[in-house]
Amino acid sequence: MERISQSQLASLIILFQIGSSPLFLLASEAGTDAWLSVFIGMLCGMAVLIAVTLPIYRKTPDKNLAEIFTGTFGKVAGSLFGVTYVVYFGYKAVRNVREFSDLMILYLLPTTPLWFIMFVFLAVAGYAICQGIEVFARIAEILLPIIIIVYIVLFFMIYCTGIFDYQRLLPILDDGLKKVADAAIPELISFPFGEMVLFLMFWKHASPSARTTRTTLFSFLFAGTFITLTNIVIIGSLGTLSGISVVPLMQVVNLVQFANFVERLDPVVALLLFAGVFMKMTAYFFGTTLVFTQVFRMNRRKAVIPVGLLIFMGSLMFRSYMQHIWFGFEKNLKFHFPIFQIGIPVFLLLAVILKSRLQGSKSPPS
Amino acid sequence: MIQTVLGTSSDIVVRKINDDSTGLDGVAFVYIYDLIDQQTVNQMILHPLMTEIGEQTSPSSSSEWLKIIKNKVLSVGQVKELHSMDEAVNQLLEGCTLVFLQGCTVALAANTYGGEYRSIEEPSSQTVIRGPKESFTENIKTNISLMRRRIKSTELRVELRQIGKQTKTHVGIMFLKGIAKDKIVEEIRTRLNRIDTDSILESAYIEEFIQDANMTPFPTIENTERPDAAAAGILEGQIAIIVDGTPFVLLAPVTFVRFFQSSEDFYQRYDIATFLRIIRYVSFFISMLLPSLFIAISTFHQEMLPTPLLISLAAQREGVPFPAIVEALLMEITFEVLREAGVRMPRVIGPAISIVGALVLGQAAVQAGLVSAAMVIVVSFTAIANFVIPAINMAIAARLIRFVMMILGGTLGLFGIMSGMMVILIHLAGLRSFGVPYLAPLSPFIWTNWKDTFIRVPQWAMKKRPPTMASKNNITRQGKGQKPAPPGPNSDT
Known about the structure:
The complex is a heterodimer. Chain A is mainly alpha-helical. In chain A, 72% of the residues lie in helices and 0% in strands. Chain A has one domain: Hydantoin permease, CATH 1.10.4160. The longest helix of chain A has 43 residues. A five-stranded antiparallel β-sheet of chain B has the order 1-2-4-5-3, sandwiched between helices. Chain B has a five-stranded antiparallel β-sheet with strand order 6-7-9-10-8, sandwiched between helices. In chain B, helix 5 packs across helix 8. The radius of gyration of chain B is 30 Å and the shape is elongated. Chain B: It holds the Pfam family GerA.
């Protein structure tokens, strides 16, 4: 079986979590306290991770999600669950593809047809999946330090230019804690902090498995802190403007002028977004393909093509970026995603525990 | 009999001696004139056989004679007994002199290997300012001796074999037992044994038969003509494959970053070496990406440039009839033609070509309004950056990728370049060289190797061999506490 090291797992988790989050101002309803909402969201996500997702992994450390389903509910019912997760993971990939391609058209290539960008993006991701989980994890390991360094330089420049003003973060908790918590739950649990359910597909490859839990928690914490920090920087730089811009980070960077020479840093942000969204999308694409191979008993390299086509068609279904965002934030985050991120996993965990109890009473360990 | 196998080539010399006085009847020598050292044959074989043979007591049987000749008469270092015709012909083609006796089924082969070879000269493709000035030659024996002189360890192993049905080329693998990983040595042996071909004329033949990936522009086996570089590789656990007939020795396994190390890095001060090494990485990216970035920015993302620069660029491009991508491809192809001409043409014509290249294609093309001056700068800087990469096979990979990148940059702008880079990264991450991940130590992350990857730490700080290649049981390179320090205040000196 393919193996990934702990540092590779950590890079995967961090990149996956950061992914497309800096594209949006998370929890913008909370106004200047958005970063507090993000922080609360992270804690809740962490709770879900510790209470539900990780225990499933620890009960069945050598199986991925699809194998756990068939192992617990039998072939037919397990495959049915598998299909629902093909839909869920696939839909997440669709969202990422769409977000990314629309932004590319918005900022870099206004005249290129949308489908072409999507096609290229999916083709690159498909190539990564053909190469396997080891290669994918290695890319994460190489990209992570580059991305972190670029972010640090960017934040440093923003600070030096004097855009950042911590006064914009004040007053803290002006509208009370309730508004902050309302913004955080359930939206921020579903995106991005509850998405760790995908890693049930990858954890089994991590070695040594004894340290996987620790690595996961630490990298999750790191990513969460990082997202909170980004949020603070955006609000501190844009203030009330941040709620209305399409990509707030791009807006902030537009204001940076450094040493009369560095003026246009948009492409740098585009590069960061490219790397982040690419990793996240490929992770979902990968997860979809893996479940797909499990359910339909197919070779991974062959399964990439139908799955890729499904995602491609799916991402063409939204009429516009605005519809896409509205649908995502209003419907999916509140109603649909929690089912897959919390509902089914809780059910699965109970089933796994129950099954191991039953088996334990039937055949006591010799 | 020999003549039936080899035909009547005029360079085969058969000499018979019939001397009844000693009781030895019918001795014959066979050698190929061009492969032997005439002096050795005369002094060590012919002369003793003709004169000293009389001093021996004459035995009865011819096999007794053979023993006497082998042990007392032939004063050559290496004498072998041959039992079959095939063996005899092989030895003959290797440059041995065969001695036959009438009535005896065993022949003797005395090593009289000789003939003209190029002497050891300065390396021509991997030059250094400071460092040894020897390079390998076409002779495998010289090459092995060059290596043996550098590594006098008892653990140094040389395994010779012949590959090629027609050429019967000697191919040797050389490694340090205990430092090279046994698994990799075994892998190289099996891959070499699997080769079934007519001819091996250069080490590239071997390389193409044994490399891990064929569908890649990136080399997965290193080659060098510098004995010191090969020795350094062997000391780090690499395995050298030495091929007769070429001065280029193969080194495997290899990682991506090794192609950016020059042996001179270790002969200069470490801080300077680090600086030079970073320059090389930067040059690699320039030579791969600069034209495509220029195309992408000037076609799709003009807003990224500061306004004064944009205006000056636009003014230059005003009279140019082509889009930027066509202009760049035109110039790049022109340059590739010039470079190829520079390599192939006779040395005497050199200056003429450089005048044509510099004046006609640079100056005149701009004045004629065919290309913009900025494009000429971009293309020539790219070309020069390409020469910085020490390994020519890696430089060629960058050249090839450049063209793909230019097309991507011309059609999809920065997005295309990013996608292309991502594909290259995925591709590199998937490559292996004899089981060693190509991108190690970047990923999988190996901290020990980082001391000699982007930076080079001083010799005393490299306490361990890189674990990517060297065996884990024998990892320590040197003792502790080697950092030089000034003598204490109490010391007299």
